[in-house]
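Course exercise 7: structure representation. Students receive a sequence record and must write out the corresponding structure in token form. The form below is the worked example handed out in class, using Redox-sensing transcriptional repressor Rex (171 residues). Read each field label carefully; the graders check that inputs and outputs are placed in the correct fields and that the protein name is recorded exactly as given.

STUDENT ID: A-19
EXERCISE PROTEIN: Redox-sensing transcriptional repressor Rex
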Amino acid sequence: MGDVQVRKDLAAVSDKGKPKVGYKVKDLINELETYLGCNKMEDVVLVGAGKLGKVLLNYKGFEEYGINIAAAFDINDSVISDTNIPKPIYHLSKLTDLCSETKIHMGILTVPVENAQSACDYMIQCGIRAIMNFTPTPLKVPGNVLIQNVNIAASLALLSKQLSEQTYNMM
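STUDENT ANSWER:
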């Protein structure tokens, strides 16, 4: 990318740059974070508070990106009563109330494969319009719903393939 393109892109985010001087780094970082939404917390819900769901509930790195898991939902009573989790876990039937009261529109899906589509459909019915899908199930959603699929197994397989190619090329 050329310097002209970088200046044009930065100008779309910030008008504080000075010709032949540039930007004050601290101000530019603040404006970029504001533009990307990192300065305000976006609440999300998590559906499926099993093993992976609990790991995500305990992960502190989301805050760095302006993401807060406000609550988790599950249908398993033993998971719901777990008090070792820093976020509340409610029965899935309470998702509608929380989403309508708080205007949360983004969710994380970590349910078993056989429940993925029905849980996704319910999330959409409750007002969720963007879903990060940790299940290996391709979800069918309306055109106005965003899906981000995260397939850890596929990512590891790709990494393994790249490693084997790198090792082969080093011989």
